[in-house]
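Support request, please re-run this one:
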Amino acid sequence: MEKTEKKLVNFGLVGRNISYSFSRGYFKKKFNDLGLMNHSYQNFDLQSIAEFPSIFQSTENIKGLNVTIPYKEEVIPLLDKIDAAAEIIGAVNTIKVSEKGLKGYNTDAYGFQKSLEPFLKEHHKKALILGTGGASKAIAYVLNELKIDFSFVSRSSKKNSYAYKELNETVIKEHTLIINCSPVGTFPNIDEKPDIPYNAIGPNHLLFDLIYNPEETAFLKAGKAKGASVCNGLKMLELQAEKAWEIWNK
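Re-run finished. Output below.
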């Protein structure tokens, strides 16, 4: 028989201003459901990535970490190894902690692909990715894998990207998949939405929002009102969390 007195196994989320976080509640419920009473998940709210090493000084027996905004890229130089896909993506959202050190993975890509695929139709050939942060890199990786052409949209135009002010009816009609990777519309600013010409959206469009709080963002509401298919980021989050759990336990 196993001893009931087991050392606490720690996991956590690294980010900034993350009190709202999905992950802590998700894993707490998971540990309860699995009867893992010696497992704990906490938020490591860092004002700067320079504070990252202090996590391991203040908390013993950490087995795995999730990483969120704004540290998915900044954490990479602090890792010992990085998974091949995460290296291509250029962003890490999952860290496995072992005797060999810290190894970074990206499970956002897996979560996004699995939650997007059921909605994809033959005509979804071109996409716009709204935002250029760490999450958008995983989205771009998946679209490449799925052979869907894409352009980024940001405040200023760069190579392979549009500025918001350059988006017109023609551009929107041509890009029938629009993915919001920006934080615009997140609780509590639920009336805000990315500044795009919604009047050009129609039933052929699929709007995907990485935001999950609120469940239906102003971006998704505006698309739905024009007959578009819509999907929020909750399924993606659940899938990326499950993939992280798999990585920590293998």
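The first strand starts at residue 9 and ends at 15. The chain has two domains: 9-106, 110-235.
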